[in-house]
Specification:
mainly alpha; three-stranded antiparallel sheet; 15 helices; 3 strands
Length: 313
Amino acid sequence: MSPDDLEKARATSRSTTGRPTNVDRGIDVPERPFEDSIRRRGDALDFTPVYDLPTRQAALGPLQAQIQAMFRAPTRANVTDEDLRSNDKTFANPTFAKVVRSAATEFDVPAAVLAEHLVAETRISSHLTPKTTVTTPLTTTVLGLDDFVQARKRIEALVPGARTLPKGKKANPFTAETDVDDFNLGRITREELDRRSKPQLEFPLVDGVRASAAYIKWKEAEGRLKIGDAPIDALVPEVRAELLRLLVNPGRPGQRTGTNHWLSLVKNGQLGGLFDFSKRTARESKNDVRRRATIHTARTLHAAKTFFPESPF
């Protein structure tokens, strides 16, 4: 970026929201006028680059380097040390680590991504005890695979290795808390509540983790079908981890959330829109899918370096 371009960006991108803009953070990418930044509540990188395709592609290298710098700084994307290391005990569990490494290799998924998914989406930590073995039974609800039964045929179509998973044992159906709340408030009938419940299965731990790896691989495969391989292959590990997290837990479809929204940002080179580098903790961002994803990404990178260095992105 030339000095003139940088000065122009500085002149037009000052935030009126009280949040740092990308220029304030040292991210030398031109921005739209601040009106768009106001509408983009919570954006830590606070920009939407407007480029023709060649210029946008040329800008992605410096932009991704700036995103990497946020995670590699001592503050680790403004994630507290408590949040960063909150899953260390689970990652260090030898049985957990063993099945994660095996499934990650089988389905070509980074082990740290799989490990963080398992603790992010599930209550698996409470099931890991000194007596836990690879055959300890876990339900798809506990594994964070509420949609697995309904999506199984689609998963097997895009991830052939998933066909080797055992059939599984039928388990109690899963009902989302929001649906239960709607029923208790009289907004839906019992029949509708039952209709929204999702069928579940029980697997041994080793096969449940394999199913989780297949699920992540399927989410990535679907993304590649929608926007092509090139935009995803071009992502650095930090951005790829964030995207995978958002594909697995995309939030409800909407203007600023949902699978199609996140994939559109990647396709259009608007990678900053995937992240929230605010200083909110995991507890403070419980209902913010993007900040939660950024915290999960920081944990994933920490896990990759500390517990799974043999499994690169």
